[in-house]
Amino acid sequence: TLYLFGAGHVSVNVYKVARMAGFDVVVVDDRERYANRERFPEARDIYADDFEQSLAQLSPNENSYLVIVTRGHRDDMRVLKWAVETPARYIGMIGSRRKVLTTYKELERLGAPHEKFEDPRLHAPVGLDLGALTPEEIAVAIVAEMIAVRRHSPAALAQMSYSQEAARRAADALS
């Protein structure tokens, strides 16, 4: 099962690719206009509520994959803090290396142990380093990494790297 946190452009594409790759998908977002059956018709479950409320209802296990692609740093941080305490097989969070490090440092400042962010289950930035720019390409890179983890492939170690230029080009492509 893939637990997909966030229901924006990248999430819709991760959902589509993950479904093709055989994952059941659970979508979690705090915006009902994004987290709904129209956007995610074959999702196993959809939670459109405050992240804290939704997280309290979830029970990922050792075969679960968690992908954090919310719309904001604060929500990513809240979900990541929860995610590292689960037994999930895979935890991925989108963002630049700088954003990832900033998130880790902030969580450590709030009391999370440093070791939680050195866990090999944690993939941040999420996705294989394919040079992906568009939401569709980023989705392929993320699901490819999930497949590599599922199949115990060493390719899972080639994590995605987002440059500022790549992020700018991806934003331009969306507008």
- How many angstroms separate the termini? 32 Å
Proportion of residues in extended strands: 5-15%
Order of helices and strands: EHEEHEHEHEHH
The overall strand count is 6
Name the quaternary structure: single chain
**Biggest sheet layout:** 6 strands, parallel
Query: With helices defined by DSSP (H or I, 4 residues minimum), what is the helix count?
Result: 6
Summarize it.
The protein is α/β, with parallel strands linked by helices and 175 residues long.
Provide an overview of this structure:
The chain has a six-stranded parallel β-sheet, sandwiched between helices. The protein is globular. Helix 4 links the parallel strand 5 (90-93) and strand 6 (122-123). It has six helices and six strands. Helix 1 (9-20) crosses helix 5 and helix 3 packs across helix 4 (97-109). It is α/β, with parallel strands linked by helices.
What is the element layout, followed by pairings?
Blueprint: E1 2-5, H1 9-20, E2 25-29, E3 45-48, H2 51-55, E4 65-68, H3 73-83, E5 90-93, H4 97-109, E6 122-123, H5 135-150, H6 164-174
Helix pairs in contact: 1-5, 3-4
Record keyword descriptors for this entry:
13% strand; six-stranded parallel β-sheet; alpha/beta; 175 residues
